[in-house]
UniProtKB/TrEMBL annotation:
Aminotransferase class V domain residues: 2-364
PROSITE patterns to which the protein is assigned, alphabetical: AA_TRANSFER_CLASS_5 (PS00595)
Molecular function GO terms recorded: 2 iron, 2 sulfur cluster binding; cysteine desulfurase activity; metal ion binding; transaminase activity
Native organism: Solimonas terrae
Protein name, per record: cysteine desulfurase
Family classification: Belongs to the class-V pyridoxal-phosphate-dependent aminotransferase family. NifS/IscS subfamily.
Amino acid sequence: MIYLDYAATTPLDQRVRDAMLPWLDAETQFGNPASDHALGRCARAAVERARSEVAALLGAGSDEIVWTSGATESNNLALKGALEFRGLQGAHLVTSRIEHKAVLDTCRYLETLGVRVTYLTPGADGIVAAEQVLNAVRPDTTLVSLMWVNNETGAINPVAALASQLRERGILFHVDAVQAAGKLPIDLARLPIDLLSVSAHKLYGPKGVGALFVRKRPRARLAPQIHGGGHEQGMRSGTLATHQIVGFGAACGIAAAAMDEEGRRLTALRERLWLGLQALPKIHLNGSETQRAPGILNVSFAGAEGESLRAMLPELMVSSGSACSSATREPSYVLRALGRDDELAGSSLRLSLGRYTSEAQVDAAAARIVEAVGFLRELSPLWSADETA
């Protein structure tokens, strides 16, 4: 089997696993990080080391990292927390139609509480232009939420160009950086983003742990969404999972050290895969040709029904879009926002590459997809009629 779904989740790096295992020891390292005794202090020191490792990957201060259960919780805390702290009634929020469901569904919930939301449509290249965002801003705009890298197309949004302009207008800026962290350089010491969400399992760490960057200066204030013991500076109560947090920190350290080299390698593999698929006519690249993350390739195959295509590729672990939206069986809302019709959106494959992808796997995957699409097109009377027209 060939795994090409790294955008959905990444396998746990062996080095990360090794870092986590001691913190599952039933005799010596099981303390609660909030406990004020030897075992608790030992666990707390490990948590704080990991906090420093996550902060270093993001160019942030350690005291600006708040632990969460993952990016879904981070996004909820950022949006709900920021707007509740400032007052929901009359607030205006700007986001895009291609955000992750964790942002879109949160925005829809906030609308039921009186928040007004503007949903921007990206260009055909999958990018939300900075000018679009700035033109949508109003005097009552409290918050802008925009993903750095789209999880389906890999298109990179101009968050760097937006950050300083939103800061000048006094508008909070939240960025979902799940697909950017560990893949693209991030330096929050220089980039005035207020809130930024990340997740460990997208960069070879464990599932079930994430973080929200919350800027200290100028301070981004949030209303907590989970109440209890006042953990994480009062923003997120709950006993910390030391082993998961240690794994997250280790994963960030590994990603930071390998980012440049790995980015070049994945870009070369992505282009090799795209070249192999071009043995087929009438295929469509979804997203920007130039402004995109190294490891994501999204392609639509005209004349090949989507579910049939995926069924013919049991040995390839691929997807048609976000793992969080796959249960709906509907064409990708992201691709439809880019202007693809339902047929083309439904015939798309998201092929995402990662740390353990090889040239041989890429070549084998391209050959199997070309074979499967060719077979389906031969069976389709619509394709034959279209070709002879």
